[in-house]
Amino acid sequence: MAFRAPIRGDAMSNERIKMMIKPEAVALLLLAGSASAQSHLDRVMQSKTLTVCTTGDYKPYTYLRPDGGYEGIDISLAQSLAKTLGAEVKWVATTWKTLTADFTGKQCDIALGGVSVTLKRQQTAWFASPLDSDGKIPLVRCADKNKYRTIKQLNKPAVRLIEPAGGTNEAFAHAFLPQAKLTLFHDNVTIFQQLVDKKADVMITDASEALYQQKRYPQLCAINAEKPLQYGEKAWMLPRDDISWKMYVDQWLHLGQANGEYQQIVGQWLATKG
Predict the structure, then answer these.
(1) Angular region, 125: left φ>0, alpha ψ -120 to 50, beta rest
(2) C-alpha closest to that of 165 among 152, 183, 177
(3) Quick one: pLDDT at residue 273?
(4) Sign of the Cα pseudo-torsion (106, 112, 114, 117, in order)
(5) How far apart are alpha carbons 69 and 67 in whole angstroms?
(6) d(CA 20, CA 209)
(7) Closest Cα to residue 204, out of 177, 178, 186?
């Protein structure tokens, strides 16, 4: 087939197309480009403020002390991240039931504090690289540790479940233990005393929390922590579609794990985890 040289009409058509792009359209394209460039990374560095949503009721990750200060694994990590950006942390209180809505509505840069990765949350937010793998297990009185180990043993009308309102623990109970008697409790700090006082039999929670709480309450035992009933991961929630911010947080976390800072912070709370 013979090569066809460009005809004059081709060049003229290209010129007409260029002329049809109105100045208003060019301005909109430039505006969109500048808006997308303004990531949370830029905003944090400019404002010197890292805005963090957290529940403050989930040891060892986040806890609001009576004096108004926060402490925990994720709290210390957030302060470390803020330091790399020359910023201070602004804490925004939330609950497990309103976590996602507060995260987007209050324009937090991060939501953290033992947050479990779920596909439902992924629909409206991104997650940083996972901090740790975890999973749902029963926390029970040690005297009953052989009674409540499997789904079959737990999913019975005589079993009294107690869970925080909202969040993944309640979701697990509805999905896998519909026959059990479920009570929703609105204080995730004192909920464990309900088990000790025999006002409930079982709390389904993450293995990390169960292991931590059994040290605080010798009467309670974490069941099958190495073989959870459901696999899970913990990670920080990030604003969706902000790739620059996610890449920075992921790189900071990677370096912290490589140089030992992450392990040092975790060790302050879970030094005897096993």
Answers:
(1) beta
(2) 183
(3) 34
(4) positive
(5) 6
(6) 62
(7) 177
The DSSP string of 80-145 is HHHHHTT-EEEEEE--TTTHHHHHHHTT-SEE-SSPBP-HHHHTTEEE-S-SEEEEEEEEEEGGGT
Give the Cα separation of 40 and 51 in Å (integer): 10
User: In a 3-state reduction of DSSP, which class is residue 151?
Assistant: helix
C-alpha to C-alpha distance for 79 and 89, rounded to whole angstroms: 6
Assess whether pLDDT exceeds 90 at residue 7.
no
pLDDT of residue 107: 86
CA dist., res. 21 & res. 121, Å (int): 40
Domains in the chain: ranges and CATH: 41-131+235-270 (3.40.190.10), 134-232 (3.40.190.10)
pLDDT of residue 36: 52
The one-character DSSP state at 270 is H
Region 58-66: what's the mean pLDDT? 95
pLDDT at 38: 81
pLDDT in tens, 216-252: 999 999 999 999 999 999 999 999 999 999 999 999 9
H/E element holding 220?
A: strand 220-222
Per DSSP bridges, beta strands 160-164 and 70-71 are unpaired
Q: Please identify which residue in the block is written with the tokens 């999973």.
A: 135
Question: Cα 95 from chain centroid?
Answer: 12
| Residue 182 contacts residue 173 (beta carbons within 8 Å) | yes
The pLDDT score that the predictor gives to residue 35 is: 45
CA dist list (Å): 155 to 170, 175, 209, 210, 273: 14, 11, 22, 20, 29
- What average pLDDT is seen over the chain? 88
- Counting every residue, how long is the chain? 274
